[in-house]
Design goal:
By secondary structure, this protein is mostly helical. It has a single domain, classed as Na+/H+ antiporter like fold, CATH 1.20.1530.20. The chain has 14 helices and no strands. One of its GO terms (cellular component) is plasma membrane.
């Protein structure tokens, strides 16, 4: 459990550094801050994803836990999408930002320590990373990029989703792992170095974005943010429990599926939103709230299961 607390400590500390640097004017607002997100989007996060997936065991990708978590992700996204269409009347990019915020969980810097020290098995996390990056990310990015109209824009949005750097990195990493190849160390070492910069860049930009802005500020984004937060912390774990129970999962597999579903919203959702300049407030505030509230949610799940 100490390592889980360490994971939370890392997140809050690096966010705090970004906030302080922004307060002192070292990290500028607007385009200056977004350079962090763009570097993460185009270089460091793809490096992190490739180095993680390429060295993983592909036999774990078809585990029932992975299927349950993926199913609960899709259902939760769908619930937010329907609520948004009926009550919020958002455009497609903003709605996609909220749907992703309600379901796309932090499988890297929070998922790994929690899998190791709460579930007791890290093999559940890397398949989740691959599914999120290779399957969900193309849809999310296509939705965030769907601000225009016409067949050409729809086509461009789909292409943008399928050719996003993280998606290509996940597919390439899976190909390397499935083929049993070993990437030479002179090639893999710099990729790992780049990947190590991904999380700090995203978290510092996130912290800088909080400067001069309040979470849950009154306005059209407050209710969608609260909805996404509630879905992420309560509905998604409940859906995962329901699917896992119907599928006959018991013991550690049931526990793993529900705990992974309760992980906080991934900083990548904010990174995507910031890169495409849509739904930033909903993504930022949901990441902030779920990161703080996910620990008590997981402690409750641990007590129940």
């Amino acid at each position: 459990m100490l390592d889980v607390l360490t994971g939370f400590s890392i997140i809050f500390t690096v966010i705090g550094v970004g906030y302080v640097l922004a307060r002192r004017g070292i990290i500028g607002q607007g385009e200056a801050r977004l350079q962090f997100n763009r570097v993460a989007f185009w270089a460091t996060t793809p490096s992190l994803i490739f180095s993680s997936v390429a060295t993983s065991d592909t036999s774990t990708f078809l585990s029932p836990v992975n299927a349950v978590v993926f199913g609960s992700t899709l259902i939760t996204m769908g619930i937010f999408w329907v609520i948004s269409m009926i009550f919020f009347r958002q455009d497609v990019p903003t709605r996609m930002a909220g749907a992703a915020s309600s379901s796309y969980f932090n499988s890297v810097n929070m998922g790994l320590p929690i899998a190791l020290y709460v579930i007791g098995d890290a093999t559940y996390v890397v398949p989740a990373v691959l599914l999120q990056m290779a399957v969900l990310s193309p849809f999310i990015i296509a939705g965030l990029n769907a601000g225009g109209s016409g067949k050409h824009h729809v086509r461009d949005s789909i292409i943008a989703g399928l050719t996003a750097p993280m998606v290509l990195a996940a597919i390439a990493g899976f190909a390397v792992s499935a083929a049993g190849w070993t990437v030479p160390e002179p090639v893999m070492a710099p990729i790992r170095i780049l990947g190590g910069a991904s999380i700090p860049l995203i978290l510092m930009s996130f912290g800088a974005s909080l400067n001069g802005r309040s979470v849950l500020k009154s306005g059209p984004d407050r209710l969608p943010t609260l909805t996404a937060t509630a879905l992420k912390l309560t509905a998604m774990p409940a859906v995962a429990w329901g699917i896992a129970t119907l599928a006959g999962l018991e013991g550690n597999q049931l526990y793993a599926a529900v705990i992974l579903a309760a992980l906080p919203t991934a900083q990548n959702v904010y990174n995507y939103a910031a890169n495409y300049r849509v739904g930033e407030t909903v993504a930022r505030d949901t990441v902030f709230l779920t990161t703080f509230l996910s620990l008590p949610a997981m402690l409750f799940i641990a007590a129940v299961l």
